[in-house]
Amino acid sequence: MTVETTTVVTTACPRNCYSTCGMKVHVENGRIRRIETHEGNRATDGGPCLKGLSYIERVYSPDRVLHPLKRKPGTTQFERISWDEAIETIAGKLSELRDDPGPQSVLYYAASGTKGLMNAVGMRFWRLYGGCTTKYGDLCWPAGLEATRLTLGDNKHSAPWDIANAKLIVLWGKNAAETNIHQMKFIDQALDAGAVLVVIDPRRTESSERADLLIQPRPGTDGALALAVAHLLIESGNIDEDFIAKHVLGFEAFASMIRKCTPEWAAEISDVPVRYIEALAEYFGTIRPVTLSPGFGMQRFTNSGQTMRAMLALLAITGNIGVPGAGWVYANLQTQIFYEVRDPMADYPPEKPDGVVRVSISTARLGPEMLAQRDPPLRMAWVERGNPISQNPETNTVLEAFQSLDFRVVVDQFLTDTAREADIVLPAKTMFEQSDVIGAYWHAYIQFKQKAIDPPGEVKAESEIYRLLASELGLPEAEDASLFPVTDDEVDAYLERALDPFPELTLDRLREAPVLAPGQEDVAFSGFVFPTPSGKIELESAEAVERWGIGALPSYTESVESVRREHPGPGEYPLNMLTPNTKNRIHSQFGNLRMIRQFGDRPVAVMNPDDAAGRDIADGDEIRVFNQRGELRVEVQLDSGLKPGCVCLTNGWWISEGGAVNFLSAARETDIGYGAAFHDNRVQVEAVSGAE
Amino acid sequence: MPNSFIFDANRCTGCGACQLACSIENELGPERSWRRIETFNPRHHPWAPLFHLSLACNHCDEPACMYACPALAYDRDAVTGAVLLDESKCIGCQYCLWACPYDAPVFDKGLGVMSKCTFCNHLLQEGLKPACAVHCPTGALDFADLPEEQLVNGIEGFPETDLGPRIQIRPLATGRRLPVMTASSVALPVTATESSGSGISLKSEWSLMLFTSAAAALVALVAGSVKSASTINPFAFAGAAVVTMGLASLHLGRLERAYRAVLNLRRSWLSREVVTIPGFLALGSLYAFSGPSAIVLGATATLVGFLGLVCADQVYSVLRKSTPAYHHSASVVWTGFFLAGVFSGTAWLAGIFGLGKLALYVLRKLSFIDAGRPVRPIVSAARMGFGLVLPAILWLIDFQSLHVYLIAGVLIGELIDRSEYYEELESESPRREMDLDLQRQVARREPVLADLAAS
Fold it and tell me: N or C: which terminal CB in chain B sees fewer CB atoms within 10 Å?
């Protein structure tokens, strides 16, 4: 007779996602049986999304990498090798490269796959090794972060539940129902209390379904829309003059600049009828308080830093900052208490290079800049927590860059598109297999991502991998458990030390429940303190000019690949390619699981019936989506809710599934913040002849 | 107060967490679940709202599945109210799926049995809520003890029944705001994917079509023999009986439990059919071996046979959306009488039922024209031409010398009609209801979405 042992472990989901759910994991006889919500996290107490539940499959998936793998020379096949062989091979290569051409010939590429303090162990190793080359900037959100920093001085917003107090909610380029499902609960509460919802999105989505107004602009033109709304607000006098006088810098210049930004001007640019722009301005001018929650996708254009500054201006001139139910719900970095520099600055290249770590590669231009590195050129790459081949812009170039290296190591749980290009694949832990402390960027809870089970197979956490490598390389620090914590006790001690400066935060307390970050504000900026150079909300920013070379005021310029549907030039690609995230994945994660695939098992391009009819394309046909950078062949699905002139394919399909959208995107930066402007993406679509 | 699901259509985003929570809690494997999401207007037709229904078993007060199950595999937990299926008693006939308007029972091809939502009875017994209700991130799905009068559940896609489903559906709020869209209003036609119904077709039920037709023909053969004192080749009849039963057994997922099919004589027409049809085949075989002199045996067999045909027609009465069998020209009772007349050369019997069938057939097709349903003119012409008109002409010319051709024509006609019967069967299903409702809304072309210019 076996005795069943069940334990319930408090933990939290470390994915790159707004929700960062608090969780309780039921472990029965060493195996995860159930995952449920931790009600101590008020933002996510409804329960994890389908991805959070699907960990039960992910952890035990037969596809998981459980042992070190080595590529069979000249093939795409892998064979299992021992840890000894893996570590010896990698350390041998590292020693060789350190001598010639130097440690900076190694690219260290870590992305957003898993949050946590333990991630710092990686860079610590590379510094001890002698250095490396790494990236700056970020794929996700920096244009918006920098716009916010320039305008408000800091990236923070009110607690997630404060949106329930709003009387007007504007989801601008955001489909919370899919990407931030827990926000929907609070939006529903506001709507039940009579709030008005406006959604701005070229698609009709679950989020827009309860909206009073769905505005569908031409992608990349949101800035013009925002400036026209500001124009109408100022013209009509529906602004908060008192607030402006006290807290806003540059209003006069802004007001004078946007005199020309009429609704007619914006309608021409954005393809949104004047009456819709007027309706939005009417709402904005007459309803208080207003919460504006922009998404991330809309700030991935070459003009989007300025777009975000224009949107921020709407809140500034109407006094919708610092009071309950109002504000800019973009990124809440109040849990970034463990670092001296918060995002986005933490991802900027250092002003004075230290000669050890070469921060020389723009994340947005990963492929071309990897190829362009000299003195020394890149010879090896180490990738962890990321899948750059399918997820960074211009997949063909990224692929070329990785294939041109001598040696590639990828640490991952599955054979992703990037892992498939590796010479050695090392198995990665899942969130349940090593403890960590994680923050969030929507709510302000510090959470203990507690270990619940032992790693399966021969899986080792990165901290142990680095320790083995350090040891093999003969680094004296290899024995220091405070640098490379491996055992559970060492990891706990490491985390305790990180929590030391914060008496409110102890592992014992976090073991029970999430804890709000020390000093966090439930209503952000309620003290009306704005850590900008002027101490005010800066519509006019000298730093914007100095650092980025853009105008001091928010303004509208066409994005690089802006396409006016009516006037595509000869030979030009006439459609805007939308690549939004879906509820089914976090970027390229989760899509390989059967639990997830039952909700969609193949990439499908969505088109408006108008655009399809003009191209002789019928529902379900196979189509070719292409531009000068690449092409995809996928099935088409017609959708009357999508704005004409757009084609939409969700991000995160793998190359092997035929849906890797970045074959089409360009390696290009946003105007500010070193972001990736990969949504600035024009394509053409045609029927694949003989598809029947 | 009874346990009930609570579903708020305004809050459901169709995220799928409930579906996975069910799979995980009940250890069904990654792709099996007793709960599913149905989406209304997935292609975002501008004249209709977009919403989702999350559906599982509603543990009805009057569980149609339980009443229909011939094998008494269903039971109700008297304390929690959960309608439970004992998979070890299930014969895999899928009749409960026909009976359930919500498509709650799920057929497991691998195991050959049905399975269904248990209300997470094991959790209810511990005072907890079902996993799906616990795991809804938006609070759209919940669970509570609700008094009867609060069980309101009218919404597009949710079949209206008198079964007393234990679910409170909060429909789309009146005055619920729909987005004013600036995109093209050129509408996508309601496509085949949107209008495809679930359930029963000739393709899925061909074995039943042949089984019921064969049963009617054999009953008619015995009846005709009794009437005209003609002999039946006993070996051919017994062979046909075996084939007929073989056809019926194709419908079972678990043949070794077939004996259980007779257990619910009290409530299930299927159990009654399972007793009477094989009973007739046995008696009919005995009669065939005994010869036409065994009048009492022949009469008994005929009587049991017609009872069997009545049961076979009534089996389909669980499909409440379908025309009652006796309004249909392919009713096996009518076919039994008609064929009995044809086989025995009894002109008045064949004439009455042949004309009756012709009238029912024509009236039905006329009603299809009115309803805009497909009429299939060539099939109709073949059914009437080969099956009724040609035999009548041949009969008038010379029954004796032409009766082989006449009977062949009649059988072709009857098979066509019976095939159409299965094609026309409709089971109630949320997916199908949604498709029909969407078609109606789109056809009305009412601008659900107010235009800002007008306001």
Answer: C
